Structure formats: structure tokens, C-alpha cells
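SAMPLE LOG
Freezer: B-3
Tube label: C17
Construct: single chain, 144 aa
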Amino acid sequence: MSRHLIDDVTVGWNELGTDLLDDAPPALAHALTGGEQWPSRTLDHLVTPDGAPVVRMSVTDATADDMDVQWGYVLHPQGIEVISMAHTGTGPLVAWDTDPRTPFSDHPAHWPAITTRRTPTTSGTPPQPTARAAPTGPHTAVRR
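STRUCTURE (predicted):
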């Protein structure tokens, strides 16, 4: 995951495609994409205001506020930490073996207490859906 998302991209992603699911079980990939396939697309043909070479954006605690970043994702060996920038601190850690069809909620009640530490919440369960969460069942993939 980290090689695909971080190491193998020069600047950043315009769109993540179904190639991210190449090693997923075929039935799961089909359930998530509706059987469609499209490649990931990188941010290409970028131009900086001063003509300087484009560099990868680094998001840190010091720069996140100025970058209009709404969500952050930290890859850990045990799972992915999902951080809402509106709820600073840490976010829940979603184990790598969590079914990606699980509905998640961005309701603040499901986030851990606000903290300044960078230690992720390590519960093995994802945030619980609220009454307004997306329904479970097959989802049709939408390509932007």
C-alpha cells in the first residue's frame, strides 16, 4: 500500500483507480467497483506560479491548517489511521483486514478524545455508523 500510494508517485494523485485493488480478492474488487476498471492517475502537467519545479506536498502539524486539508491518512503496520482535520489529534486506527464495504461515520462522537499526541487509537473496530450512515449492501462504483 505505501509503495503504491507514496513511493511510486512523484508528486501526488489526481485519482486512485482500481489498480489499487489488484491484489484484492476478485469478488471484493467487483463489489467495490461494479466490475469497472480504470487506472490511477497522477498529478501531471502542474505549473508553479514562479516556474520552479513541482515538489511533493508535505503535510505536517505546522502546515496542515494552511493547506485546506480536511482528512489525513497515516499508514501504520497494523492499519490505516483516519484523521479528521476538524478533530485534531489522532483518529481511529482501521485494521488492514477490515472489510472496506463497512460503513464509516465522520460523526465526532465516534472519534477518540482530542489529544496532542501522535499515538493512534488502536482499537480493532472501526468507528460505528450513525443513523444517517450509508446503507449496507452492494455499492455502485462512481468514477470521477
